[in-house]
User: What shape does this take?
Amino acid sequence: MNKGELIKAVAQKAGFTNKDATIAYEALVETITEALKNGEKVQLVGFGTFEVKDVPAKTGINPQTKETVQIAASKKPVLKFGKAYKELFN
Assistant: This one.
């Protein structure tokens, strides 16, 4: 399912127009992104938690030259699914 298909499905289930569902989708994504940028977690009970994790610096190896390369520390967004949601698939 891609973005367009998701928006269409949400519009159909919620009784929205595609335009309204698109606005809601974009608002949701923007709100989650802003919260993560501000260092907040976003918990959707029954689904999962969006958060930003710190990835420490490490040493990697360039596979072509076999040289060691320093990989800088970074932050990455992650989604941890809730236990109840994971159990739906097992």
Summary: Helices lie at 3-14, 18-37, 83-87. The longest strand covers residues 48-55.
